[in-house]
Amino acid sequence: MTSLRMAAAAAAFDRDLDGDFARIEGIIEQARAQGVGLLALPEACLGGYLADLGGGAEGPPPLTLDGAEIKRLTKLAGDMVVVAGYCEHDGDRLYNSAVCVNGDGVLGNHRKVHQPLSEDASYGAGQSFAAFDTPVGRLGTMICYDKAFPESARTLALDGAEIGVCISAWPGSRTNPAADLAEDRWKRRFDLFDRARALENQIVWLSANQSGTFGALRFVASAKVVDPGGEIISDTGVTEGLAVAELDVTHALETARRSMGHLRDRRPEAYPGLGGGEEELAATRY
User: Fold this and answer.
1) Dihedrals φ, ψ of 177, to 5°?
2) Do 252 and 18 form a contact (C-beta atoms < 8 A)?
């Protein structure tokens, strides 16, 4: 059995790319000192999130997947697998993207599919979810609002993802904010989605989030690691920090799926409107 130490960060980022990289370097050093092999950084950690969801304010700096900034991130990652959010520039479009890297280069890239609160005024939408192999296992990445849709994580689990990594810039409620962020209804939703997506797919789940404030947004932090039973095994709460946990991922998935296997016991023919078929069952190997 081989254990993997993994971590999810809650931290604040802004338009100062050099400052963001300095913060990322510090987080990576902190994680490396604890033996972390997989690290999730927040959505938009390279250049900050949108200050105005209506598209009226200056957005984060556009970066290319093969550009100098992503190469800089790969060098910082070294032997660690790191997932980080950035504003991807491709052709004449911008995308809210999550890149997965290590010292060898880019391992995967996901464009946010589901866009809340007029985010589509600033970004194009991604069109798919696909898992990919890394030195620490098969991952599936999502961004923020993606996790509100069960189909996102389920698609990745059926594609063999053992670990779901969701990076966010998830704020507290804007219409009815709680005085105590820990009691905010949007914070409760954030946690509920994390636990539900892990449990229903019986996968390990890493959830990173922005912390502090940016523009009018007050982020709920709450970075965490969730096991395949939906139990939170490490959590930063509503403050900046690093949630670290160690699991034998293969053993954890086998144990969770042994008696009631949620992927194995699916009946795709009973809900044809959701798509799927017998070929999907090949992914349910535990």
Assistant:
1) -70, 145
2) no
Which residue is associated with the tokens 């092999």? 37
pTM for the full model? 0.94
Q: Give me the residue label for tokens 């950690």.
A: 45
Please give the Cα distance from 11 to 31 (Å, whole number).
13
The CA distance from 7 to 161, in Å, is: 17
Whether residue 285 has pLDDT greater than 50: no
* 8 A C-beta contact, residue 58 and residue 94: no
* pLDDT for 95 beyond 90: yes
Please tell me whether residue 42 adopts helix, strand or coil conformation: coil
Cα–Cα separations (whole angstroms), residue 202 to 39, 149, 260, 266, 281: 20, 16, 10, 13, 15
Q: What is the predicted pLDDT for the residue at 220?
A: 98
The SS3 assignment for 115 reads coil
- Whose tokens are 């300095």? That residue is 22
Cα separation of 180 and 112, whole Å? 30
- Is the CB of residue 223 less than 8 Å from the CB of residue 241? yes
Q: Are 66 and 90 in contact (CB under 8 A)?
A: no
For residue 208, give its domain range.
Answer: 4-283
Average pLDDT over all residues of the chain? 94
Q: Considering its fold, how many domains does the chain have in total?
A: 1
Residue 188 clears pLDDT 50, i.e. is over it: yes
pLDDT at site 216: 87
